[in-house]
Design goal:
about 210 residues, C8orf32 fold, single chain, three-stranded antiparallel sheet, mainly alpha, about 55% helix
Length: about 210
């Protein structure tokens, strides 16, 4: 059993841990994983512990704008984002929460469908951080959708669905199939598993 599979079987693994093991499953080596952990630690130490919740979100917004530029064509995996200082917004969301939680801040992911945002658990959701729009904090009412908290399993599922689709579009069917297989190892409801199984079988057919 891989470490990713073991963590995926836990009830609430940390975002950072599951994201790093996901990267390892998809080819990241020990050097890249260690470098990502160090960078997360450096960024976490740069955050002030004694700040009010909204001020903490503002500090994370500034961190995105400064050190983790969102890019629609950017990477999804935590070591790549830490190394390059850019990534797809859903990957940046996981990266930012990993940094904040390493610093002891009570922030977490919220989301809707294929999007992830950052919210503070110690305040009402009057503002959130949209990693795709780091110019200012966002009033969640502007999104026009209902947001719910996303655990590491759910966030990893979002990452993998994006990665499956992006890899297929680029013609990398082997990577797309690998991401799809990892999706099937996550704890999801039967309806979601059946839908993903159909995607996986379609990819297998294309590869063959």
């Amino acid at each position: 059993m891989s470490e990713f599979t073991r963590l995926a079987g836990q009830q609430c693994p940390p975002h950072e841990s599951l994201a790093l093991e996901l990267a390892a499953e998809l080819g990241a080596d020990g050097v890249a994983l260690s470098a990502a952990r160090r960078t997360i630690g450096v960024l976490a130490r740069g955050l002030d512990e004694a700040q009010e919740p909204e001020v903490q979100l503002e500090a994370l917004r500034a961190l995105v704008a400064r050190a983790m530029r969102p890019a629609r064509e950017g990477g999804y995996l935590l070591p790549d984002i830490m190394r390059e200082g850019r990534g797809h917004p859903v990957g940046v969301a996981v990266a930012i929460v990993s940094v904040a939680q390493r610093a002891g801040w009570s922030v977490d992911l919220v989301g809707h469908n294929m999007k992830l945002y950052i919210a503070h658990r110690e305040m009402p959701p009057v503002v959130i951080l949209d990693p795709a729009r780091p110019e200012s904090l966002t009033d969640p009412r502007e999104l026009g959708v209902d947001l719910s908290w996303r655990c590491a399993h759910e966030a990893t599922g979002v990452i993998l669905r994006h990665l499956t689709a992006a890899s297929e579009r680029s013609g990398d069917l082997t990577r797309s199939l690998g991401a799809s297989a990892l999706l099937l190892s996550l704890p999801v409801d039967e309806g979601s598993r059946a839908a993903q199984s159909q995607v996986h079988q379609r990819l297998l057919s294309r590869l063959n």
